[in-house]
């Protein structure tokens, strides 16, 4: 590991000021914030991240879970994944989030990982993590070894000629289905961004993964109040039962009346370069009868733009079946 300066921030403003010393908050940033460190430290050991300054933000007052006056929920950026997954309000009103968190990593990692860090979790693409290989995300203009390499785990939606890396987070998929809002303190003040707009597609600049600018610090995430009668569910398909990333996953938030779907939000994981909201599937489902044909049509719509590579063509049908199964389970219990 290379030498770096280590500091502790005692206020949000102090952290933001430290962050502005870097020209970017994306790949290649020379100043990085650290909380749980479950991802950043790995990247530093691999020389993928090479910051000159690491700012410890664990002392900031961002570790609370609060119910909002309108019935929503505010989650501080430093709330640990385990605490969030087991919070009684989350388990009661946002079950999809609790299920997603508990499906990821190990208990030890969940005890350390934070909400803000999970939002910024880096891809598991082996070519990104191995500096001996070409990677446009790690080094712009270097090329992409994954496209003609081992790409079984990589994305089939939202890809480009420069990058097919998958967003690895389970939590982010659930937050997308819940229409979470991310709150950011930056050098120019506070701003809020819908999670669907927070992540950017790789296009020709895959090293830029989100809308964060130099000095930006995620301070909290808010969830809207759940609608009466709404149920939610997270289904994850993977090679082994524990401590494994998704081949495909689906987060469903649905409200059923009679035998028809009144409202639904669909997000998918393991298949997209960002947590994948499927507006196409939602359009096919809303107002439709609850039956196998409806679910299959929605799944076909969700994957109609899939662009598989040499080793991950199986994900197209797998993701369809994952979505059909998740919709079946969610509407059965609704």
Quick structural summary:
With 334 residues, the chain is of the alpha+beta class. The protein has helices at residues 12-19, 40-45, 81-86, 88-93, 95-102, 107-112, 115-119, 126-129, 171-177, 195-198, 279-285, 292-302, 314-332; strands at residues 5-8, 31-34, 53-56, 65-67, 73-76, 181-186, 189-194, 217-223, 230-237, 248-257, 260-269, 276-277.
Overview of this structure, please?
The protein is α+β, with helices and mostly antiparallel strands and 334 residues long. The protein contains 13 helices and 12 strands. The strands form 3 sheets. Strands 4-5-8-6-7 form a 5-stranded antiparallel beta sheet. Helix 5 packs antiparallel against helix 9, helix 11 (279-285) packs antiparallel against helix 12 (292-302) and helix 12 packs across helix 13 (314-332). The radius of gyration is 19 Å and the shape is globular.
Radius of gyration based on Cα positions: 19 Å
- The number of helical elements comes to 13
What is the spatial order of strands in the main beta sheet? 4-5-8-6-7
What is the architecture of one domain at the second tier of CATH? 2-Layer Sandwich
Q: Give the name of the CATH superfamily of one domain.
A: CO dehydrogenase flavoprotein, C-terminal domain
Q: What structural category characterises the helix and strand content?
A: alpha+beta
| Multimerization status | single chain
- The CATH class of one domain turns out to be Alpha Beta
Distance between the termini: 51 Å
Mean pLDDT rating:
97
Residue stretches low in confidence (pLDDT < 50, at least 5 long) are none
Q: Tell me the CATH topology of one domain.
A: Enolase-like, domain 1
Sequence of secondary-structure elements: EHEHEEEHHHHHHHEEHEEEEEHHH
Report strand %.
15-25%
How many beta-strand runs?
12
Largest sheet: 5 strands, antiparallel
Helix fraction by DSSP (H/I, runs of at least 4):
25-40%
Outline: globular
Enzyme class: oxidoreductase
Pfam families: CO_deh_flav_C (PF03450), FAD_binding_5 (PF00941)
Protein name: Xanthine dehydrogenase YagS FAD-binding subunit
GO molecular function: FAD binding; xanthine dehydrogenase activity
């Amino acid at each position: 590991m290379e030498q770096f300066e280590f500091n502790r921030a005692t206020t949000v403003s102090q952290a933001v000021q430290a962050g502005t010393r870097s020209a970017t908050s994306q790949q290649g940033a020379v100043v990085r914030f650290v909380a749980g460190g479950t991802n950043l430290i790995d990247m530093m050991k691999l020389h993928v991240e090479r910051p000159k300054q690491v700012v410890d933000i664990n002392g900031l007052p961002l570790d609370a879970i609060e119910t909002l006056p309108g019935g929503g929920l505010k989650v501080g950026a430093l709330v640990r994944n385990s605490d969030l997954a087991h919070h009684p309000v989350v388990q009661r009103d946002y079950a999809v989030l609790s299920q997603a968190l508990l499906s990821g990593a190990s208990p030890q990692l969940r005890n350390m990982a934070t909400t803000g860090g999970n939002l910024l979790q880096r891809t598991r693409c082996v070519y990104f993590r191995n500096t001996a290989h070409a990677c446009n995300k790690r080094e712009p203009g270097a090329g992409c070894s994954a496209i003609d390499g081992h790409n079984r785990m990589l994305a089939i939606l939202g890809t480009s000629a420069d990058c097919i890396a998958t967003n690895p987070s389970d939590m982010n998929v659930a937050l997308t289905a819940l229409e979470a809002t991310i709150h950011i303190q930056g050098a120019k003040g506070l701003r809020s961004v819908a999670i669907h707009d927070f992540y950017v597609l790789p296009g020709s600049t895959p090293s830029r993964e989100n809308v964060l600018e130099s000095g930006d610090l995620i301070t909290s995430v808010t969830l809207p109040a759940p609608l009466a009668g709404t149920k939610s569910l997270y289904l994850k398909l993977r090679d082994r039962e524990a401590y494994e990333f998704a081949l495909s996953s689906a987060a469903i938030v649905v409200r059923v009346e009679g035998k028809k779907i009144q409202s639904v939000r669909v997000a998918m994981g393991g298949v997209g370069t960002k947590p994948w909201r499927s507006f196409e599937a939602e359009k096919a489902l809303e107002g439709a009868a609850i039956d196998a044909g409806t679910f299959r049509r929605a799944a076909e719509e969700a994957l109609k733009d899939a662009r598989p590579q040499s080793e991950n063509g199986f994900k197209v049908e797998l993701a369809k079946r994952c979505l059909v199964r998740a919709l079946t389970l969610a509407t059965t219990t609704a």
